[in-house]
């Protein structure tokens, strides 16, 4: 059986990978897999370049494509003629009358994280076709800590068994930060697409002040995505926003003291933000 780390390149999964390299979590993984949406921060890509050099096992980078480009692509259904976007973001929706409509379905994690990692895992274990008799071929290590234990979910594939080593070690996110500091490693950045609608006000504020390029990119993507959804058949009357206030991102007065809740807990697969 292969042991494979699902590497998000955030604090928890990076700590997990470094602990495994140090022999503190066994057995030694065969590899790690990083699913690249194409839209992580420059800090995350720089960190991943550094992290790869520290590990005792290879990191495979896989990608379905650039998410920010795909969400503004339109398709037309051959039979119904319905116009729809290629994929979608979990944006905060409002109708043209100003009434809130909840959040849009979240396809990005499944399409751009889970499925690419599963495909690479299938390739690595040499599995062409799974049946009900296929044994467990891979142990997938996921960097969920005890303060996010509600994100633990069993694998949807019988030939993959999920494992949560940080849970086994009873480590919270703060313990990961302490471990990195104690062992002389720098602090890993938070891993997520720069425009993720699950960002807290603190994260948005820090990006606006410290990474204006990424913030400007997010502002423009929101505008482009609004234009895209306005042309769809099924979502034509819904306006998507990246911030919970449903105010254009460029106009939001971010207030960390009255922050959005940490909505990464709603992420069902445990693949983002770690």
Tell me what the structure shows.
Helix 1 crosses helix 6 and helix 7 (201-210) crosses helix 8. The protein contains eight helices and ten strands. The strands form three sheets. Strands 3-2-1-8-9 form a five-stranded parallel beta sheet, sandwiched between helices. The chain has a three-stranded antiparallel beta sheet with strand order 7-6-10. The mean pLDDT is 92. The chain starts with a strand and ends in a 33-residue tail after the last strand. It has 274 residues and is an alpha/beta fold.
Write the SSE topology:
Elements: E1 2-6, H1 11-21, E2 31-35, H2 42-54, E3 59-62, H3 67-70, E4 74-76, E5 83-85, E6 92-95, E7 100-103, H4 108-125, E8 138-142, E9 160-163, H5 165-168, H6 173-182, H7 201-210, H8 212-230, E10 238-241
Helix pairs in contact: 1-6, 7-8
Approximate shape: globular
β content, as a range? 5-15%
How large is the count of helical segments? 8
Poorly predicted segments = none
Report the biggest beta sheet as strand number plus sense, adding barrel if it closes: 5 strands, parallel
Instruction: Give the total of beta strands.
Output: 10
Element order, helices and strands? EHEHEHEEEEHEEHHHHE
The largest sheet has its strands arranged as 3-2-1-8-9
Span of the ends, CA to CA: 24 Å
Helix/sheet category = alpha/beta
Radius of gyration: 19 Å
The whole-number mean of residue pLDDT values reads 92
Please give the share of residues in helix. 25-40%
């Amino acid at each position: 059986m292969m042991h494979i780390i699902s590497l998000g390149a955030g604090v928890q999964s990076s700590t997990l990978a470094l602990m495994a390299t140090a022999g503190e979590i066994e057995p030694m993984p065969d590899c790690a897999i990083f699913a690249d949406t194409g839209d992580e921060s420059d800090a995350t890509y720089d960190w991943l370049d550094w992290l790869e050099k520290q590990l005792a096992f290879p990191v495979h980078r896989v990608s379905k494509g650039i998410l920010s480009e795909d969400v503004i692509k339109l398709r037309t259904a051959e039979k119904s003629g319905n116009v729809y976007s290629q994929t979608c973001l979990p944006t905060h929706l409002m109708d043209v009358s100003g009434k809130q409509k909840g959040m849009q379905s979240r396809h990005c994690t499944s399409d751009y994280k889970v499925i690419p990692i599963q495909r690479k895992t299938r390739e690595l274990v040499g599995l062409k076709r799974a049946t009900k008799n296929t044994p467990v071929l891979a142990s997938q290590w996921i960097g969920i800590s005890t303060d996010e234990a509600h994100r633990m979910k069993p694998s949807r594939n019988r030939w993959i068994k999920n494992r949560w080593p940080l849970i086994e070690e009873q480590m919270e996110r703060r313990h990961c930060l302490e471990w990195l500091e104690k062992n002389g490693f720098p602090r890993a950045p938070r891993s997520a697409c720069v425009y993720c609608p699950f960002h807290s006000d603190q994260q948005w504020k820090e990006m606006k002040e410290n990474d204006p390029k990424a913030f400007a990119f997010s502002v423009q993507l929101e505008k482009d995505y609004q234009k895209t959804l306005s042309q769809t058949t099924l979502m034509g009357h819904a306006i998507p926003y990246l911030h919970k206030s449903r105010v254009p991102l460029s106009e939001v007065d971010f207030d960390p003291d009255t922050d959005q809740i940490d909505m990464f807990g709603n992420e069902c697969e445990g693949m983002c933000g770690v």
